[in-house]
C-alpha cells in the first residue's frame, strides 16, 4: 500500500514553486484556456495522458500536482508515487482555491478572478493579501499553510 | 480459491464488473473471494489509472471498462 500522499495548500505551493518546485497541471486544455496558473516552468499533462507521458517529468525536482479542485491531482500524485517519484505533493483545493486567494493566473476568466473568495477558501476568514495567513494547524515545516 | 479484487470508486461499471464476476463464478462453480476496493490510495497502490481494475491473486489483469465475459471466464479457468 502506498503511503498517504503529501498535501499542501496553494500558499505553500506558491512558496515551493518560488524555491524551485515544478507545478504540474493535470487539467484538460479547455480548462487551462479558461484559467491557467501563471507560474514559471509549469508542466501541463492532462490526467488522461499521464500514464503515457509521466516519463517527461523530472525526478530530481519537487513536483506539485494541481487540477481544478484537488481530486484528479490527488490521483495523479498517487500514480507518480506508484511510479517511484518520491518528491511529489498534491495541491489541495486546486485552481479554485489558488484563484480565490488572488494568486497569479492568466486566461479568459482571469479578469473575473482576482480577490474572489467564493471557492475553496480557508473557511476561517480572509486575508487581505491572501498570502502568509494561516488558519488551523500547520504541518511541521509548513508554517504558512492553511 | 481465487482472490479477486475489483478496484473502483463505486461507479456503474465497477458494479457491473463485480456482478459479472460473481455470475460467471457461480455458473462455473468456481469458488472465489471477491472484494471491492473503493479507496483511492489502495486503488492507486496497484498503479491503476482507469477503473474498474481487476486483480486476481495479487496480479492486475484488467483496467478500464467492464471486461468481456470471455475474459472473466479465462480468469476463473
TrEMBL record, chain A:
Signal sequence range: none
Pfam families given in the database record: Rhodanese
CDD domains xref list: RHOD
PROSITE patterns tied to this protein: RHODANESE_3
Disordered as annotated region, ranges: 106-146
All residue ranges annotated as the Rhodanese domain in the record: 17-107
Alphabetized InterPro entries for the sequence: GlpE_sulfurtransferase, Rhodanese-like_dom, Rhodanese-like_dom_sf
Record's protein name: Rhodanese-like domain-containing protein
Lineage of the species this protein comes from: Bacteria, Pseudomonadati, Pseudomonadota, Alphaproteobacteria, Hyphomicrobiales
Automatic annotation (TrEMBL), chain B:
Positions of the Thioredoxin-like fold domain: 3-76
Classification via Gene3D superfamilies: Glutaredoxin
Any single Pfam family the record assigns to this protein: Thioredoxin_3
NCBIfam families: redox_disulf_2
PANTHER family, sorted: THIOREDOXIN
Protein name, entry field: Thioredoxin family protein
